Amino acid sequence: MKTYIALLRGINVSGQKKIIMADLKIMFEELGCTSVSTYIQSGNIVFQHKKDMLTLTDIIKKEILTQFGFDVPVLVLTREMLTTIYDNNPFLKRLEAKEIEEKKMYFTLLSRMPDHKDIEDVESTTARSGNEEFVIAKDVVYFYAANGYGKTKLNNNFFEKKLQSTATTRNLKTVIKLLELSKLD
């Protein structure tokens, strides 16, 4: 059994696409997943399964549509992948030195690597407000929202549109918690 982390985009946000986590956990178990645990209401599920990531992504996406009636983007990662994303955070040293606030650090995870031209366009044309900073690396955007995520124009939808990739964003606290929960192997 391999440990996976499923990230669902856009559920339980402002009363939209409501899914009770206990029901989601049952759905995962019905799909043959074991050691299923959820974290907060925004669609973070840690589980184990024998199948590969791409197969699981399709199965989970289809089952959510069948059981709950929502077309929800699903991103499935291994614990190793999320660990690498965390370890490669270009803001990590500044976070550790308390130069920047942990609560303003975000990870926008992309379903695929964006085209090099799209990355260049975003980096060269994006007007950043205040002290906002971001680094696009492979399939993740590391984003420091100095003014808070609720006030930025550089949100999940922005990066998703500009980089032409389905995306979902998690804060640093959630990434750390998912890494802790996924120590199942």
Structure write-up:
The radius of gyration is 16 Å and the shape is globular. Helices cover 37% and strands 24% of the residues. The chain is α+β, with helices and mostly antiparallel strands and 185 residues long. The longest helix is centred in the first third of the chain and has 16 residues, at 53-68. The protein has helices at 21-30, 53-68, 79-87, 92-96, 116-125, 156-163, 172-181; strands at residues 2-8, 34-39, 44-49, 74-78, 105-110, 133-137, 140-144, 167-171. A hairpin with a 2-residue loop joins β6 and β7. α3 (79-87) runs antiparallel to α7 (172-181). The strands form two sheets. Strands 2-3-1-4 form a four-stranded antiparallel β-sheet, sandwiched between helices. It has two domains: 2-79, 2-Layer Sandwich (Alpha-Beta Plaits); 83-181, 2-Layer Sandwich (Alpha-Beta Plaits). The mean pLDDT is 92.
Which descriptors apply to this entry?
7 helices; alpha+beta; globular; 2 domains; Alpha-Beta Plaits; 185 residues
> Level of helix content?
25-40%
User: What is the CA-atom radius of gyration, in angstroms?
Assistant: 16 Å
Q: What is the succession of H and E elements?
A: EHEEHEHHEHEEHEH
Uncertain stretches: none
Span of the ends, CA to CA: 8 Å
The overall average pLDDT, rounded, is: 92
| CATH architecture title of the largest domain | 2-Layer Sandwich
Q: Tally of extended strands?
A: 8
What's the overall geometry?
globular
> Beta-sheet strand percentage?
15-25%
Biggest beta-sheet profile: 4 strands, antiparallel
Q: Could you name the CATH class of the largest domain? A: Alpha Beta
> Can you tell me the number of structural domains?
2
Protein name: DUF1697 domain-containing protein
Pfam families: DUF1697
Organism: Aquimarina algiphila
InterPro entries: DUF1697 (IPR012545)
